[in-house]
Amino acid sequence: MLVVYLIISVISLLLFHDYLTRRSRKWKLLSKFPGDPTVPFFGNILQMGFDTDEYPKILSDMWKRHGKVNFKVMMGPEAWVILSHSSELSKPIERNAAMVPFFGNSVSTSEGDRWRSTRKLMIDSFQFKSLDKRLAVVNRNCDTLIAKLGEFDGKEPVDFYYYLKPHMLDSLCESLMGVKTNYLDNPGHEYIAASGKIVNYVTRHYFTHWKRIDTLFKLTEEYREMQNIIKTLRKNGYYIISERKKGLKKFIEEIKENNAALKGRELESHVKHTVESNGCMLDFLLMSTLPNGSPVPDDMIREEVDLVTFTGHYTTTMTMCHVLYNLAKYPDVQKRVYEEQNSVLSADFSRQPYNQELNDMKYLEAVIKETMRIIPTVPKIARQLKEDLQLEDGRVLPAGTEAVIYYEGIFFNSDVYPEPHKFNPERFFEPLHPYAFVPFSAGPRNCLGFRYAWMAMKATLSKLIRQYEFLEGGPGREPLFDYKLITESQNGIQLKIKSRRS
Ligand code: HEM
Q: For heme, which residues are the binding ones (predicted)?
């Protein structure tokens, strides 16, 4: 009997909770968006499942069911609105909360003053003027990469994730952190292994509601595994900082020796100017001070180092590998990309390109864009709204809603991209709405590293394409894409290569 009473009480409470919810302003505003029917208190959680690996498909099915327009999902007490229009990106400046467990209060995961001041500090090292120096580093690392790949020439398929991750890490650590690393000689490095798991953990954590209840999550094995990954990331971050501190100290001593005529403030200002003009991101952080004048603590700097090291190498690696896969899949496109290389670098085909020449590789650029459209590198981004957000159609997302920018919806909108499932780089030679293609996000919280990303990806792809022809990996090697926090293939990108020089 007691059990019956208990059940009746719980059901009554749930119904009462549901009654109150439905009378709230928030609910009334959200009711303007279509969505699947909800269960009191749980919303659509039961539908999303308790194991998230299926969630991209579930979301995609919902999006199709609701006519491929903005729709809502109730994750228990949390309301998510899935937006298929990226013009809303120009407004929200809230943080990306999903990555907090890994990157603490970094520029991507903080908000308010901390976010503003760090972004301002870092932005200079991502400007056009420092790209030439960065390109020289990437070009040099490309030579090492080509030499490594040589052993696969004409042989079994090679997994490009495995080699491009360390290549991008070496390039990034040297150009943005001022530290020469050698990950390409050790692609199985513990940092690469650990960072390869972040995407899974962040995605699961984000889409499995109960895992965000700290007391429950801390009891799981997954929590302990996550802590080990975080430890490895931090160890790497502190290593980079301590190496750069030594390098920077030496660099400053050299500047002082070479400018013995300068004294006091004049010397200090010359040192500062010379270090800054080097454009190394980590130097900006190491030389900056807190509002009280004391140096920024290593813990704070390490959060930025961890974030940029991870996002910078992972996103670019995935994008480039997916481009190579498309080149192998569409030989006509590959032929055209190769011909463009011939025409842009006609004078000396084997030399390294300049930045201007990278800019002239318009067809390669269109192929990269079409790849990011059809296999979105970052398939969705989410922001928790602090204030109401009015959409262009007049509807309002109430404060507290999770606004999810859904790139699948944006990039597969047939009104904007006719025949959206067709791989057609030509479409990027036609004019597009300014917000139709924003894979690096837009507005005040857009991607800090997008210029670096374009340069590093074009330089690496240019070198690879001039050296090798790319062929599909064969039966059983077709990529199995997972649209998690970052899109990646479960079985890597396995392709055959054939030297163009033989
Ligand atoms: C193909 C490559 C890349 C893509 C598609 C990409 C995409 C994005 C997107 C969509 C965001 C917004 C995320 C959000 O709001 O939740 C973002 C933010 C960010 N990205 Fe990238 N990114 C790429 C490469 C890079 C690189 C190479 C770096 C650094 C070297 C970088 C550093 C950052 C940082 C620091 C932020 C946070 C900015 C802020 O919140 O103020 N990204 N990126």
A: 447
* ipTM over the 0.95 cut-off: yes
State in Å: Cα 115 to ligand 1 middle: 14
Neighbours of 256 (CB within 10 A): 14
Distance (Å, rounded) from C-alpha 497 to C-alpha 150? 9
**Nearest alpha-carbon partner for 185 in 148, 233, 157, 149:** 148
The atom of ligand 1 lying closest to the CA of 315 is 2
Per DSSP, what are the bridge partners of residue 75? 43, 78
Q: Count Cβ atoms within 10 A of the Cβ of residue 245 and give its class: 0-12 exposed, 13-18 middle, 19 or more buried.
A: middle
Task: Please write the tens of the pLDDT for every residue from 166-216.
Answer: 999 999 999 999 999 999 999 999 999 999 999 888 888 888 877 878 888
**C-beta 108 within 6 A of ligand 1:** yes
CA-176 nearest atom, ligand 1: 30
Average pLDDT over residues 471-489: 93
- Of the residues 311, 322, 406, which should be mutated to test ligand 1's pocket, given the most ligand atoms within 8 Å of the CB? 311
- List of domains in the chain: 100-384+441-499 (1.10.630.10)
445 CA from centroid of ligand 1 (Å): 9
